[in-house]
Amino acid sequence: RVFPPGAPPGPGAPAASAGSPPASLGPPPLGPVNPALRTGSARPTAEEAAEDCSVPADAVLIPLREALDACRPTVQKQVCEDIGRRLTVLGDMWAQGKLSAPVRKRMSLLAQELEQRSWDAADEIHRSLMVDHVNEVSQWLVGVKRLIAEIRNLPTGEHAEPRDDKTESVPDQE
């Protein structure tokens, strides 16, 4: 414990002054605990949030990697490699438990929107992640943003068919 200079606590003195935040370790506060304060709170505890989002990483990473594979024929190799590296960082952070439940949940929703080709909804989820969780997602979310942009630019129908802008508009030109 750290005490202010010249003020060692006497027997029965409180562990912390009234103006300082509660210590992370130590005895629980004295007095009854109002259960309504815990159950009625807007923010779930870390344990509750973890229960709310038990999404496996593959439920997110597989659709993202499939989208990347669909882009490969039409997107520059270097761009695809960068997106792939960032998806690997996402997967590593997920596996190491470094992503919070809200981030995992939103990424699950984003992957579902990509699978349904709801580009605007996926982009909106991306923006909300960047605003609300920038420190947690900044290493890999740029790759997800680029992936959304590239997959949305693919020609509809055949995702794997390469696009040639010179001949696409005029088919039988000989």
UniProtKB/TrEMBL annotation:
One of its GO terms (biological process) is apoptotic process. This is Steroid receptor RNA activator 1. Residues 13-23 have a biased composition (Low complexity). Residues 1-12 have a biased composition (Pro residues). The gene is Sra1. Residues 18-160 form the SRA1/Sec31 domain. Keywords: Activator, Apoptosis, Cytoplasm, Nucleus, Phosphoprotein, Receptor, Ribonucleoprotein, Transcription, Transcription regulation. GO terms for molecular function: transcription coactivator activity. Gene3D superfamilies: Functional domain of the splicing factor Prp18. Belongs to the SRA1 family. SRA1 RNA exists in a ribonucleoprotein complex containing NCOA1. The RNA also forms a complex with PUS1 and RARG in the nucleus. Interacts with AR. It holds the Pfam family SRA1. One of its GO terms (cellular component) is cytoplasm. It is found in: Cytoplasm; Nucleus. Functional RNA which acts as a transcriptional coactivator that selectively enhances steroid receptor-mediated transactivation ligand-independently through a mechanism involving the modulating N-terminal domain (AF-1) of steroid receptors. Also mediates transcriptional coactivation of steroid receptors ligand-dependently through the steroid-binding domain (AF-2). Enhances cellular proliferation and differentiation and promotes apoptosis in vivo. May play a role in tumorigenesis. It comes from Nothocercus julius.
